[in-house]
Amino acid sequence: MSDPIGTENLLRLELHDLHVALGGRMVPFAGYEMPVQYPAGVLKEHLHTRIAAGLFDVSHMGQVILKPKKSLADLALGFEELVPVDALDLPIGRQRYGMFTDANGGILDDLMFANRGDHLFVVVNAACKAADIAHMKANLAAVAEVVPITNRALLALQGPMAEAALSRLVPGIAAMRFMDMAFLEWSGVELWVSRSGYTGEDGFEISLPNAHAKAFAEALLHEPEVQPVGLGARDSLRLEAGLCLYGHDLDQTTTPVMGNLTWAISKARRAGGEREGGFPGAAKILHELAHGTDRLRVGLRPEGRAPMREGTELYVGSDLVGSITSGGYGPSVAAPIAMGYVTAAHAKIGAKLEAELRGKRLPVTVCALPFHPTTYKR
Amino acid sequence: MKYTKDHEWLRVEGDLVVVGITEHAATQLGDVVFVELPEVETMVAEGDEVCVIESVKAASDILAPIDGEIVAVNEALVDNPALVNEDPTGAAWFFKLRLDDMSVLDDFMDEDEYAELIG
Asked: What is the DSSP code (8-state) at residue B7?
């Protein structure tokens, strides 16, 4: 119930005026003024995305092109020195999830990268983008020119009707599969489209020049399935989908193995793989892959109705066994949901824990992720 | 109706004061998904956190606006927290207080003063 927070020194999105005109409530986020919700509200925006299509402005995220100095293979091998992921064998027109690790195996940021034929295209989190760009410039100087893209907006259209709505404007998107990346055209404007997102739904992320972003966003909003969706619902959607939020569920104290992201560590980079190790913290991460970790990220279901937020401590008897890193109410689950880290002994699905909430102990059960089934078009 | 700077409304009902949150507060909170009410027959002091109210995104507290005894709570909010958004100044009252001295209500804002506060 606090009054609006000061918005001095915040960056404005290219579509700022459109958000305001749509009734968006602007709040500070990662150095930007961002719409947290529109008049429909977080609940309706969330549910609309699950049944139709939600339009998100994610232009605050960092878009970076890596131009190879010699060859793409040379660049990919250089990039592999920063991530525990296979970049060399990523086919042209495909995108992959990864993370920059540090010397201790901690996560500096999580990211998406795509092979676009003659270069790599990387999308990183807004709060980390300056550090990520510096990290890439410092470590890829021999193999790549690091080019931050600052003149393009990034929009996400997510939900089961995203394909139908977007294909009326850009027919080529219907042929894409989950994690494809393509150059397409709308009214003579080059779009960089990926079939991916952060909601657990089928959907697309579209990068386009700032000068055309408003017209394109308005054209999308004109489609009957499409409603604007703010950061509030983006957070509840990604939580239901079991997706991590950097700085909350992942940080430099968590490795990819602790973060339950072993699926993202490519075979080629694991023990016995063609290019085993060779990324920061490899010794620790490979050891954890073989022998496990002392704590793990898990899904958590509070048994009552009270949402449990970040920082809530988890106990078994008098032992502190972990804490919640993301939590709230899941509108599609219609119940409180959370993610957090617990000691390995208590990380099994079905394990009974207790959360300490406002001086009371309330039961919580470790559960499988995601909370809401994903519907990617594989 | 009287108003507090914490965006609560106070309505006299016989010898009791009914407390809820204003429409402005409900709008700012967004979709309410959880309400925790105090026990009846609890003595509260001004500023005590007496209710927890959670929207999809955030948790906040409702503070006791005045010293008094909680004599009734609105259990309907527990089963249907969305009432807070649907009818904040009517069906979505939170609790009823018994005061020693009703004259303390004079110190709170009237509707015009509250309208000025929220601009």
From this structure: S
